[in-house]
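Section 5.1 Outputs to date
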Amino acid sequence: MADDRLDILSISERWTREGRKVALATVIETWGSAPRPIGSHLVIDAEGRFEGSVSGGCVEGAVVSEAIDVIETGKPVTLEFGVADETAWRVGLSCGGRIGVYVEPVTANAA
């Protein structure tokens, strides 16, 4: 997984060098059946193009929408998706789980 993270960070750096406005989404919390581990990344540009994954397709659309707002405002957000508590596992919900995603704007480094 470490190589995947480096690839996403490289894409983020390349996109900012190209002049694209970019946000980086990072999985910061998981519980239950979250399909991506903590530290997984999704890089998004202001046009909604993205690379990577924070949930295997479950919440990427919502994260991309929020990331576009983050790019516009410059203010990071923490997003939470999933069930409210562990009772989902007691009743056997196969889609139970929770994921926390931190979305932050990325700025080009001054050279």
